[in-house]
Amino acid sequence: MSFRSFCKRKDIEVSLKRYGIDALSAMAQGLFCTLLVGTILNTLGEQCHIGFLNKVLVTIGKGDATIGYRIGDLASAMVGPAMAVAIGYALHAPALVLFSLIPVGFASNALGEAGGPLSVYFVALIASELGKAISKETKIDILLTPIVTILGGFGIAYLIAAPIGHAAMSIGDFIMWATEQRPFLMGIIVSVVVGMVLTLPISSAAICAAFALTGLAGGAAVAGCCAQMIGFAVMSFKENRWGGLVSQGLGTSMLQMGNIVRNPKIWIPPIITSAITGPIATCIFKLQMNGAPVSSGMGTCGMVGPLSVWTGWVSPSKAAIANGASAITPNAMDWIGMILICFVLPALLTWLFGLVLRKIGWIKEGDLKIEC
């Protein structure tokens, strides 16, 4: 049997779609369901004084090293296992492999430190394929598959998790440093690039998480994502009405991808808008996203971007604190900036640019129609 036929039989597919789209998107969902939701629950508990959300459920350690975990803390602590299992699910890993990825993800995330998400991504990819390769090949599958997946995953994590994590942290640190030094130029670059990635079938959330983007760079990323989502939702209202407004504005601008392939010119208005709102966020309002880094790439999906700007004000994430962030009491200018950058300017500017393109015939009737 050839290696190619073996991989086909095992559903091991080395492709951009499988590894670059499916796995990354699944990883972002794992991040969302643990770290991001945990952060939101903690912030709601603290700011709204909700008793059961503030109650310590589990205590680990002794003496001065004791750490208490609330519901949100416990959810956030499971981010590594959740990402690994999500990736394995996207790769069609069988049950024994999928469950064995839980400790692999935990170890990879811990070894990768602040760059843990990217470490988990690579380690989980390799461990999943190793487990799939051995799965159901012997009569002791119940033992061999978990052992191979766990030992293989731990070995890979030991070798590459820390270097990958440190590399991701260095890239993220550079982007954030560059944004601080050149807020106008980097505001444009980060906003446009992250916004476009959001609309492409790639996970902008996973990429922002991998590079731990917070601060001004995180704010520029939020601006770009909101420009795409709110922009497309408002610009296409004529074709898609309220269903399209909700599905794109609170769901994803990726719904326009098929239309972009057919007529790339429809992408011009939200891109121009993001190039405007990005530097406005960084230079005028100094908008920072100091919540969980994954939020920088979420935009208005489930209102995560704006919510995380708020959580970053009142309770910065560990990644943001590591970069010098501290809790603040937002003033009127902060709120005005967030509302303008996340909602008002994306809606107004994209609609105006779209109107111009409709007038000159670059966007025609039905070009923005989606199936909601």
Query: What's the gyration radius in Å?
Result: 22 Å
What is the count of β-strands? 2
Oligomerization state of this entry?
single chain
General shape: globular
- Count up the helices: 17
Structure class: mainly alpha
Helicity range: over 70%
Q: Return the string of H and E elements.
A: HHHEEHHHHHHHHHHHHHH
- From the N-terminal CA to the C-terminal CA, the straight-line distance is 45 Å
- Overall number of domains: 2
The low-confidence runs, each spanning 5 or more residues with pLDDT under 50, are none
* Averaged pLDDT: 92
Summarize the structure.
The protein contains 17 helices and two strands. The protein has 372 residues and is mainly α. The protein has two domains: 3-168, no CATH class; 182-359, no CATH class.
Question: Can you describe this structure?
Answer:
With 372 residues, the protein is mostly helical. The chain has 2 domains: 166 residues, no CATH class; 178 residues, no CATH class. 72% of the residues lie in helices and 2% in strands. The chain has 17 helices and 2 strands. Strands 1-2 form a two-stranded antiparallel ribbon. Strand 1 and strand 2 form a beta hairpin. Helix 5 crosses helix 7 and helix 11 runs antiparallel to helix 14. It starts with a helix and ends in a 13-residue tail after the last helix.
Q: What is the topology?
A:
Blueprint lengths: L2 H7 L6 H33 L2 H4 L3 E3 L6 E3 L1 H7 L1 H12 L4 H18 L3 H19 L6 H41 L1 H17 L4 H7 L4 H21 L1 H15 L5 H6 L5 H17 L19 H11 L3 H5 L9 H28 L13
Helix pairs in contact: 2-4, 2-5, 2-10, 2-15, 5-6, 5-7, 6-7, 6-8, 7-8, 7-10, 8-9, 8-11, 9-11, 9-14, 11-12, 11-14, 11-17, 14-17
